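Can't paste images in this forum, so I'm doing it all in text. The chain is below; anyone willing to post the predicted structure tokens underneath?
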Amino acid sequence: MKNVTVVKSNKVVEAGYRLTLNEQRLVLACIAQIKKGQSLSTDDRFTISASEFSDMFDVPIERSYGDLQMIADKLYERSVTIDDPDPQVPNSTYIRTRWITSIKYVPRDGKVVLRFAPDIIPYISMLEAEFTRYSLAAVSDMNSIYGIRFYELLMQWGRFGERVLEIDELKAMLGLEGRYKAIKDFKLRVIDPALKDINQYSDLTASYDQRKSGRRVSHIIFRFQPKGYDKKLPAKITKKLIEQHARPGESYKQVELRLKAAN
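Text version of the structure:
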């Protein structure tokens, strides 16, 4: 069950939201059910049973029942803010939507059934433009609320390299505006646990540094690469390799030149 793929629009990867670890797990498990090129509607229902949840995320089956019931009680209230101006509403700068329109827990069968909200569907269905793709197995064992989010932000940028994120922007993505004003607290409570999860459970190795503007730490610099990466790419830069390492907005040729330079 872990050998399934999650595909998200990059706009959702960078969106502002905060979900519990188990809520993230359920959303990803449902997204992984969407077939490539599948067109979704608001009538499509996604079902996850306690046994499937247990298998996917290595949690005891007895606990899975309670986890799913708790998710069903809370997930409906969660929202996501996506920076995506609507061409039909020229003056808009973002859209805020619920993740789902309905969810129910079926105690007799030990499962949840949900439907995604209309405004989130375009970002998880029939993706043709910029998106991030990864295996659910890479995040299924993570324990940090933020491990999955950080992993997605790194994978969005390709499987190796460097990504610089402004701290206030990063906090907005994580739904942490106004919190952890001391950088040491932000690193201790958010960044360090997330990278510990990435390094322990995912297929990446990651580290970070910080950049100051004056006396204030203003940016976090993430450096990452696949586990076992020997700093040498295959001699032949294939289309598949380019797709794996593409960054948002890069053309095919730009990715090819960057990979050749890395060699």
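The longest strand covers residues 216-226. The CA atoms of residues 1 and 55 lie 7 Å apart.
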